[in-house]
UniProtKB/TrEMBL annotation:
Keyword field contains Amino-acid biosynthesis: no
Protein name stated in the entry: HPP transmembrane region domain-containing protein
InterPro entries from the UniProt entry: HPP, TM_HPP
Pfam families the record matches: TM_HPP (PF04982)
Domain HPP transmembrane region positions: 15-167
Membrane-crossing residue ranges in chain numbering: 44-63, 135-158
Keyword entries, A-Z: Membrane, Transmembrane, Transmembrane helix
Species, as recorded: Sphingomonas hankookensis
Length: 225
C-alpha cells in the first residue's frame, strides 16, 4: 500500500476529494463561460489542454507558488506568446518546439510567474492546429487568457467555499517572529540552508520557516514529556 500513499504533505483523502470535485467544476464552468465569448470560434478550441494541468495546481495544491493567480494567468499567456513568436520565426517545427518551451521557462522565471502548464501552452502554439496558427498572437488572449482568468476566478470562489486559502498568503514576518522561540529557526537560517542545496522547492521560504519552527517546537515538547 506504500505505492498509494499521498506524495503531498498534509493531503488526506478528504482533501483529495475536495480537489477532485473542485477541478471538475472548475474545468466545466470554464468551458461554459468561454463558450459565451463570441470571438472564440472557427477552429479555435473553447478550452486549451494546458488548463487541465492548471486545474491540478489550482485545486490540488492551492498553496503552491506555481498555482497562484499571477503564475496561472501570466504564465499561460506569456508562454503562448512565446510559442507563437517562435513558430513564426523558426520554420523547423522540431527546433521551434524545443526553443519555445525553453524560452517560455526563461520568460516566466524573469516575470515571476513560473507555471508548469505554461510549457504546454507554448508547445500548443507551435504544434497546434491551423486555426491556432491563423489566430497568431490573439490565441494567447482568446482562448488561453480567458480560460486562465476564468479558472482562477472559479478557484478563488471554490476555495473560499471550502475554507481553504486561495490565493495563498505566505507566512508574514510578524507571524514568523511570533512563532519563533528563543534560539529557534529564523528566515536567515532557511536562506543559508537553501544556499547549500542545488534543488528548488515548491514552497515559499516564509512558509518553510514557519513549518520548521513549529516542528522544532513540537519536538521540544515531546522530548520534555
Amino acid at each position: 500500500m506504500r505505492l498509494f500513499r499521498s506524495l503531498l504533505a498534509n493531503a488526506g483523502f478528504g482533501r483529495r476529494v475536495v480537489a477532485c470535485i473542485g477541478a471538475g467544476i472548475g474545468i466545466a464552468l470554464t468551458m461554459v463561460v468561454c463558450a459565451q465569448v463570441p470571438w472564440i470560434e472557427g477552429d479555435l478550441p473553447i478550452i486549451v489542454a494546458p488548463l487541465g494541468a492548471s486545474a491540478v495546481l489550482v485545486f490540488a495544491v492551492p498553496a503552491s507558488p506555481l498555482a497562484q493567480p499571477w503564475p496561472v494567468v501570466g504564465g499561460n499567456i506569456l508562454s503562448t506568446l512565446v510559442g507563437v513568436a517562435v513558430f513564426q520565426a523558426i520554420p523547423n517545427v522540431t527546433i521551434a518546439a524545443g526553443v519555445a518551451v525553453g524560452l517560455a521557462i526563461l520568460l516566466m522565471s524573469l516575470c515571476r510567474c513560473l507555471h508548469p502548464p505554461g510549457g504546454a501552452a507554448a508547445l500548443t502554439a507551435v504544434i497546434g492546429s491551423a486555426g491556432i496558427h491563423d489566430a497568431g498572437y490573439a490565441f494567447a488572449f482568446a482562448p488561453v487568457g480567458i480560460n486562465s482568468i476564468a479558472l482562477v476566478s472559479i478557484g478563488i470562489f471554490y476555495h473560499r467555499m471550502t475554507a481553504l486559502s486561495y490565493p495563498h498568503q505566505p507566512a508574514t514576518p510578524a507571524a514568523i517572529q511570533a512563532a519563533v522561540e528563543p534560539g529557534g529557526v529564523r528566515l536567515e537560517d532557511i536562506d543559508a540552508a537553501l544556499a547549500e542545496t542545488p534543488d528548488a522547492f515548491d514552497i515559499a521560504r516564509e512558509d518553510l520557516t514557519l513549518l520548521l519552527e513549529r516542528a522544532e517546537h513540537f519536538a521540544t515538547v515531546r522530548r520534555k514529556k
